[in-house]
Amino acid sequence: MYNAITPSTLIPASASRPSSRLELHPVGDLGPNGPDARAVLTYSQSTDPANPNYADMTKLYSDYGWVTMPFSQGDIRRDPNLKVLNLSERN
């Protein structure tokens, strides 16, 4: 698979968004302590060059890196970016 980052000034705005193809690569193993999974998003989290996430995942992908995916309640609660939204059904 070939992925490239192109300055947004060289491509039309209508083409500067990620494709609809799935480019999230997950891998995992079910160990004695539960799932051990990693993933990488090949095209990064932002198409805006001014955004700090502009080339983050593309760089990680090119360095053969992975993001550890949280699965346990403790892993999820320790995430510094965790936001909880409680929903309830109206009767």
Could you explain the architecture of this structure?
- The protein is built from two helices and three strands, in the order ββαβα.
- 3% of the residues are buried.
- It is 13% helix and 21% strand.
- The longest helix is centred in the middle third of the chain and has 7 residues, at 56-62.
- It starts with 23 loop residues before the first strand and ends in a 14-residue tail after the last helix.
- It is an alpha+beta fold and 91 residues long.
- A three-stranded antiparallel sheet has the order 1-2-3.
- Residues 1-8 have low confidence and may be disordered.
In short:
By secondary structure, this protein is α+β, with helices and mostly antiparallel strands. It contains two helices and three strands.
Considering the chains and any ligands shown, give keywords for the structure.
91 residues; alpha+beta; three-stranded antiparallel β-sheet; 2 helices
The dominant shape is: flat
* Main beta sheet: 3 strands, antiparallel
Gap from first CA to last CA: 50 Å
The count of strands amounts to 3
How many helical stretches?
Answer: 2
SSE arrangement, N to C: EEHEH
Topology:
Blueprint: E1 24-31, E2 34-41, H1 56-62, E3 67-69, H2 73-77
Antiparallel strand pairs: 1-2, 2-3
